[in-house]
Write a structure and sequence with these properties.
The complex is a heterodimer of chains A (430) and B (371).
Chain A: E1 18-30, H1 35-39, E2 44-56, E3 60-64, H2 71-78, E4 86-91, E5 94-95, H3 101-107, E6 111-114, H4 128-138, H5 146-156, H6 173-185, E7 191-195, H7 203-220, E8 223-228, H8 231-237, E9 240-245, E10 248-254, H9 255-260, H10 265-273, H11 321-336, H12 344-351, H13 359-373, H14 377-387, H15 393-396, E11 401-403, E12 412-414, H16 421-424
Parallel strand pairs in A: 3-8, 3-9, 6-7, 7-8
Antiparallel strand pairs in A: 1-2, 1-4, 4-5, 9-10, 10-12, 11-12
Chain B: E1 6-17, E2 20-32, E3 37-41, H1 48-55, E4 63-72, E5 75-78, E6 80-82, E7 88-90, H2 97-104, E8 109-112, H3 116-119, H4 126-138, H5 142-155, H6 161-164, H7 174-187, E9 192-196, H8 204-221, E10 224-229, H9 232-238, E11 241-246, E12 249-255, H10 256-261, H11 266-274, H12 313-317, E13 323-324, E14 334-335
Parallel strand pairs in B: 3-10, 3-11, 8-9, 9-10
Antiparallel strand pairs in B: 1-2, 1-4, 4-5, 6-7, 11-12, 12-14, 13-14
Helix pairs in contact in B: 4-5, 4-7, 5-7
Classes of the chains: A alpha/beta (430), B alpha/beta (371).
């Protein structure tokens, strides 16, 4: 490893210490623009809501979630490509969220980003050499040795330094992503945000690029925030993994722990859904019902509760686990109108073969069954939702718990009320 | 076993471009039996999609189907014969374009594409599109067609189907749109559905839902599927039999379990080695070296020899035969690799390629040899 490339004197942070700390970061988008929209601003898209985590120097933090969950918005807000609505981003002791333009510009020397589409992130009219030199010029670095450095970097990322004078279109997708890597490295950053960097690549090419990224991390002492929707890639590249759902983190732990001992029902569902490339693996899939709710008016408490297979029973009804299971199924299917109400017998047989529960819960269910049979779905939905879904602890409190890890000794954060001490002893526990 | 429902023999499709002839699909053969889900897997550029659109006769200029036979339930979707002057021409048995349109597409064979937004017209309501399709293909009244359409929407798990019937495509999420497309494909009760990367654009939990749905529907209607994908995870989950494509050719075909556990072709093996696993931690990925060559000028001999770790000199010269290499008593396992032929592979010299480590520099070597 040659000395000139390793981060030099200004580096006061040791490997393993916190390089970046995100505290309560929030980004809301207003839907309209202009005066009227700003006056009637009640319909905000809450893309990222109160997200906190930190990244240690030299580490890769994987950020995984489905499309629309706010991964990319989070990344862009951290880099202040988007103005945060609230919260702080501490990078080496400075708050990026409050920096002025000029300070920020200087700070970006240390922070770079790689985007998903290797095609559109390279100027088709520039040769790759100058593309790699561009950030050096922007920051006034390496005067006189820029070309030499560009060639060196091209070689480091696995391209032929002779390709300095080629245009992006002369490269394949994987090679273009390598040019992006070289450009990100040009100003010798500490921290690189990678937003789905291999998603557009074929399996075999993806492996090549991932390996290169790992090698570069070792050689240049880089810290990655690696965003992907692909759990296999995340497992391979990350030291720790954060799982995001509808603008919030639901779980964060060391990689092995997250994959082997997931504690949030959403993480579990996500892991079960991945098709395993082994026909003998068997397993379930498609355990999640319904669609992601709108981030304009996200569910209260735990945002996953509207789809959660482990939604916690409201304590006041004193339902058995089996009874709650049936009430929950009836409520969800009524909300989604997924069945046809063709006769009382068949309806009861489908949802309550052993009869409806006793007590207050039972009478609420009975009334709702009548409503459904009278084709008044809205009334049934409203009654069930109010009486059951909204009364659950999942709707009333925002979850945040630390769990004892089984693998490794890192902190395991899980935003799920199943880890609440009161809930643990009840019928809802495992 | 009964006759296969779809039989593809030596299908060839070429694109005549200014730079030359692209042999996108170059003599592939496979069969689909009743109720079977057959996978067609490969990286981008392997020719998977051209193969499926050829079967449906949807190849557009400058592409042209130039040879082979595709038989569906005894009907020749594609058939060529030798004319008096030795030229290949369409045989009289081959269905006309009109017959294809009226008898086959939609009614007998339906196709599902990757991007559901492209298959739905954005300016018409979802229900109306579905109803029109049913009306035309099933000869029922508009009212009856609407009833079927609503039923189908419910069947594929669209909540509140009566209400959603009047929604526009953009009011649906990606997964729901794909469900609508599946409803459309199923509406005419076809015996074969060709699915071209139907879940690639979807999130993993939604993909799971769709795969479940397909499983369910397949059991209910006993529909056969040709499932095109690049995702070996999906293949492992749902396929009964798999064809692996590389550069316009099928290079291996086997039952799904054999393909993953008794892999014969070096390409399939390398592909399986190169993917990160969701169920285990792998320290170092083992990528396939280099990139797939252009189909316009494919490598001589075995097309994979430029990237093959097992390549020897004979691979460059001999085009491997596509043959059954299964042991007696086992299911058929087709492979085209000279390793399994008697053409002197064992005595040949190893070939110096990127993959065998003889090339310095270049793409691969970036990684250095320090590991």
């Amino acid at each position: 490893m040659s000395q000139g490339m390793v981060t030099g004197s200004d580096d006061d942070i040791d490997f393993g210490e916190t390089l970046l700390r995100v505290e309560g970061l929030t980004k809301h988008f207003s839907q309209g623009s202009g005066l009227i929209a700003s006056l009637f601003n009640d319909e905000e898209v809450r893309a990222v809501d109160d997200v906190s985590f930190d990244i240690a120097k030299g580490e890769t933090l994987g950020l995984v979630g489905e499309s629309g969950c706010g991964k990319s918005t989070l990344a862009r807000t951290i880099l202040r490509l988007l103005e945060p609505t609230d919260g702080a981003v501490w990078f080496k002791g400075d708050n990026l969220a409050e920096m002025s333009g000029e300070e920020l510009r200087t700070m970006r020397e240390n922070i770079q980003m790689i985007f998903q589409d290797p095609q559109s992130s390279l100027d088709p009219r520039m040769k790759v050499g100058p593309i790699v030199e561009e950030p050096m010029k922007a920051h006034g670095l390496y005067k006189g040795e820029r070309e030499q450095r560009a060639r060196m970097l091209l070689e480091k990322v696995g391209l032929d330094p002779q390709h300095y004078n080629r245009y992006p279109h002369q490269f394949s997708g994987g090679q273009r992503q390598r040019v992006n890597l070289a450009r990100a490295l040009a100003v010798n950053p500490d921290f690189i945000v990678c937003d789905e960097p291999t998603s557009a690549l074929d399996a075999s090419i993806q492996a090549q690029v991932l390996n290169t990224m790992r090698d570069l991390q070792e050689e240049f002492g880089l810290t990655y925030l690696f965003i992907s929707h692909d759990l296999s890639v995340i497992r391979h590249i990350s030291d720790r993994v954060a799982v995001m759902y509808l603008g919030q983190l639901v779980e964060l732990s060391e990689t092995e722990e997250l994959f082997e001992n997931p504690q949030h029902p959403y993480t579990k569902a996500l892991l079960q859904s991945i098709p395993v490339p082994d026909p003998r693996a068997g397993g379930q899939r498609g355990v999640l019902e319904g669609d992601v709710p709108s981030p304009i008016d996200p569910p209260s408490g735990c945002r996953f509760r509207t789809r959660c297979p482990r939604l916690i029973a409201p304590e006041q009804y004193d339902l058995s686990a089996a009874e709650w299971e049936r009430v929950k199924a009836f409520m969800r299917e009524t909300q989604r109108r997924t069945f046809e109400a063709d006769g009382e017998a068949s309806l009861r047989n489908e949802f309550f073969p052993d009869g409806t529960p006793d007590g207050e819960a039972g009478s609420l269910v009975e009334k709702s069954i009548d409503d459904v049979l009278n084709d008044d779905w809205d009334a049934a939905e409203e009654r069930l939702t109010e009486a059951f879904a909204e009364e659950s602890i999942c709707a009333r409190e925002v979850p945040a718990y630390e769990v004892e890890p089984k693998h490794g000794d890192g902190v395991h954060f899980a935003a799920c009320h199943l880890h609440n001490d009161d809930v643990k002893g009840s019928v809802n526990a495992d | 076993m009964s006759e296969p429902i779809l039989k593809v023999e030596n299908l060839k499709t070429q694109f005549f471009t200014e730079e030359g002839t692209v042999r996108a699909v170059d003599g592939i053969s496979f069969e689909v039996n009743e109720g079977e889900l057959v996978g067609l897997v490969g990286e981008s550029g392997a020719g998977k999609s051209v193969a499926t659109s050829s079967i449906m006769r949807l190849v557009e200029d400058p592409g042209e189907i130039v040879g082979g036979t595709v038989t569906y339930k005894g009907k020749k979707l594609i058939d060529f014969e030798e004319g008096p002057d030795g030229e290949l021409r369409r045989s009289s048995e081959m269905l006309s374009n009109e017959q294809m349109r009226k008898q086959i597409r939609g009614k007998e064979i339906a196709i599902i594409f990757q991007d559901p937004m492209e298959a739905l017209n954005p300016v018409f309501k979802v229900g109306a599109q579905l109803r029109e399709f049913i009306e035309i293909n099933r000869d029922v009244s508009g009212k009856e067609a609407k009833r079927i359409a609503v039923d189908m929407l419910r069947e594929v798990g669209i909540p509140e189907p009566e209400k959603r019937y009047d929604s526009y495509p953009h009011q649906f999420s990606g997964g729901m749109r794909q469900r609508v497309i599946i409803a459309m494909a199923l509406a005419c009760e076809p015996d074969l559905i060709i699915a071209d990367e139907p879940t690639t654009a979807l999130d993993v939990t939604v993909e799971g839902q769709i795969l479940d749905l397909v499983d369910e529907l397949q059991q209910k209607y006993d529909t056969s599927f040709v499932w095109v994908t690049h995702d070996l995870g999906v293949v492992a989950e749902i396929c009964d039999r798999v064809n692996v494509m590389y550069l316009g050719e099928i290079i291996e075909q086997a039952d799904v379990d054999d393909l993953f556990h008794k892999t014969r072709h070096p390409y399939t093996e390398a592909l399986l080695d190169s993917i990160p696993r969701p169920d285990q931690s792998v320290d170092e990925l083992n990528p396939i070296k280099g990139v797939m060559p252009e189909a316009i000028n494919p490598p001589s001999g075995c097309r994979f020899h430029t990237r093959c770790p097992d390549a020897r000199t004979v691979c460059r010269e001999v085009h491997p035969a596509y043959q059954d290499v299964s042991d007696p008593g086992e299911a058929r396992h087709m492979v085209s690799c000279v390793k399994y032929e008697n053409v002197g592979y064992d005595d040949a010299e190893p070939l110096e390629t990127e993959a065998t480590g003889a090339f310095g520099g270049g793409l691969v070597e970036a990684r250095g040899d320090g590991q």
